[in-house]
Write a structure and sequence with these properties.
Aspartate Aminotransferase, domain 1; 44% helix; four-stranded antiparallel sheet; homodimer; Aspartate Aminotransferase, domain 2; 15% strand; alpha/beta; 14 strands
Chain lengths: 397, 397
């Protein structure tokens, strides 16, 4: 029988996707330059030129049988070695090639990691607001989502609520820093508290609680303080990384899972990750892209564009009168909705050909997410529309 | 908690992988030219030159943002349109772009399709001998495998056993033609019978039974009769295709799922496939490879090498005295083991530095699988070793 749950999931476009498709219609009607689409978190800047050079060289000079062959299921050992060496130099974590499992991007890393550390009936803690797919991935494993708020304006965890939420069925907790949709970054202080609390709960319940750190935005940090690397704060941690944003390669589906060498059951955990990848049908991450990223450690797209956009939209909107926390990372601004009704705001915004995602979809009401991974000029053109929208909202109460 | 099942799955290398790794050790010890490794089904011929040309052109001339961007979750509509047009011309099936879901290869196509049409507790019918991952993929959905034999020497289904095996919990049946590990091809007559039987059982149990046709070897057919396309024989069919073998791109993970336009719940089935892909973390198939295969419909690696190998090994081994059915497709020979103990035969073969996979791993005793996707010269060098092995087996009884 066709799975009713999966059918619904396939039929129901996400609000984000709906807005994006609606935007296409608007563009056809009014011209692309008159539509201000802030709905999708799709990198707007090209990959570094070195990516194109490395790919070209691999394809034109490599032996095609070797190049396109299956790699081992965990990924090309030389590539994993190169990544481990880079991470060890940068973060001093003592990782080996066999702590790294090459994956088809962050989503695959998450579904594999969740499968590896949960059993049906377990609970997974997710901070709100959250990337909606976390719920989909968690429920696919037969586990239940337990939501805990991040507190505005800095969107750090509500530790009292977190302590309450962790129970004997808690097998994992997902964090995402820099954060979609708020642009916040988990501070070293928050990670310190989180580590202590999780250690305490592990001891209390006598079972491991895995911290799954989803890090596609790791390098998209516009502050003077680097994004804290999570391993020193808590041993039982799994990092899910993707090159989608750092190298602007979202469609290529390439990333990795990194097991903390300090985790208690390091080898067993890694084996379960391999088993989960195999079981879910991943075979290996795309071989050409594996070999490419192996040669591109530490390279980064020109994220100064995002930083410029960030300042422009934050300054522009707050000047109009909107409220928002200054986003520190990723490429999202989380705007407080005047009056508090995000769905109504997003609907009304369409009149001004402004496409913004209501935060209800992220499990927290009262905000809209503005993806500023767009052309800078579009932001300039959009600001008057945001102003007109603001006036209408205020005048109508 | 770490999943015990997935940990075991990750720890336990398949026999095939064990043999392959053992082969590497032997090669280091005796020299690569003195080891005869027939263990792995990894294409030994390069992709067609056009693949390299198309990839180079896409990378050097395409807009990198467009090229590496997320496609829609079902895949680039233009690519899906090109595939539908090709299939319609070749097989007259009336497929639309929206019957095709681009996937990360055949394994992903299978896990997605199985998730879409099963619920935990259902039964999936698998013909023996079978590709061992079918069991892994089926069990991941919470369904149970029910095995039905293919009958030697032609390895066509045992229809009496099949009729017995189908019950009220049967939601799917997997076929694979040309077949791993036997090299057999399901005849039009067998497909005719299969279609009738499944229609009868659907009516009897009042529920759909999906035929999942795993077709990575579709074009690797060395007979004068093309591999019959399964849609005309049975409406509720899902084709899982991969370019791994036809274009020698196994590591790149690119293929598609094709829903039969004649299936009863075509749109619901397609939606469930989309939902399953999303839920398992596939996001989209690798974008560069999607765009490449869209331009490469109908291209095929030079499979004459496999055909030459096939004749050489079949003739050589039968001349020695071994028994095997002439393989018609794929790149496997299924050799009957003198004396019948395949595990002992495979162990003994190692003495002659011959690596062959015992059929016990494929759920059927008494044979070994010989992958002839190897250098032709290796086959010539291996034949005396096969002869010595044959003599030893016969002399020891």
């Amino acid at each position: 029988m066709i799975s009713e749950r999966l059918k619904k999931l396939g039929e129901k476009r996400s609000t984000i996707r709906e807005l994006f498709e609606y935007g296409k219609l608007l563009k056809a009607q009014y011209g692309a330059e008159n539509v201000y689409d802030f709905s999708i978190g799709n990198p707007s800047i090209p990959c570094p030129e070195e990516v194109t050079e490395v790919l070209t060289k691999l394809i034109t000079e490599g032996d095609p049988v070797q190049l396109h062959s299956y790699t081992s299921s965990a990924g090309d050992p030389a590539v994993r070695g190169a990544i481990a060496a880079y991470l060890n130099e940068k973060y001093g974590i003592g990782a080996e090639a066999d702590d790294i499992y090459m994956s088809c991007g962050a989503a695959a890393s998450l579904t594999i990691s969740l499968a590896a550390v949960t059993s049906p009936g377990d609970e997974v803690i997710i901070f709100t607001p959250y990337f909606p797919e976390y719920k989909v991935f968690t429920e696919q494993t037969g586990s239940k989502c337990v939501f805990v708020p991040l507190l505005p304006p800095a969107f750090q965890p509500d530790f009292a609520a977190l302590s309450e939420a962790i129970g004997e069925k808690t097998s994992a907790l997902i964090i995402n820093s820099p954060h979609n949709p708020t642009g916040s970054i988990l501070s070293a202080e928050s990670l310190e508290k989180l580590g202590s609390l999780l250690r305490e709960k592990e001891a209390a319940y006598g079972r491991p609680i895995y911290l799954i750190s989803d890090e596609p935005y790791r390098e998209l940090n516009y502050t003077d303080t680097p994004t804290p690397f999570v391993f020193p704060y808590y041993a039982d941690t799994i990092v899910c990384y993707s090159y989608s944003k750092s190298l602007s390669l979202p469609g290529e589906r390439i990333g990795y899972i990194l097991v903390n060498p300090a985790s208690k059951d390091r080898k067993a955990l890694y084996a379960a990750i391999q088993g989960a990848g195999r079981s879910l049908g991943f075979v290996c991450a795309p071989s050409l892209l594996q070999k490419a990223v192996g040669q591109l450690q530490g390279r980064l797209s020109d994220i100064s564009v995002y930083d410029r956009n960030r300042k422009l939209i934050f300054d522009g909107l707050t000047k109009i009168g909107y409220e928002a926390a200054q986003p520190d990372g990723a490429f999202y601004l989380f705007l407080k909705v005047p009056g508090g009704d995000a769905i109504r705001f997003s609907e009304l915004a369409k009149k001004y050909r402004l496409l913004v995602v209501p935060s209800d979809d992220f499990g927290a009401p009262g905000y809209v997410r503005i993806s500023y991974c767009v052309e800078t000029e579009m932001i300039r053109r959009a600001l008057p529309a945001f102003e007109a929208l603001y006036r209408e909202i205020l005048s109508n109460g």
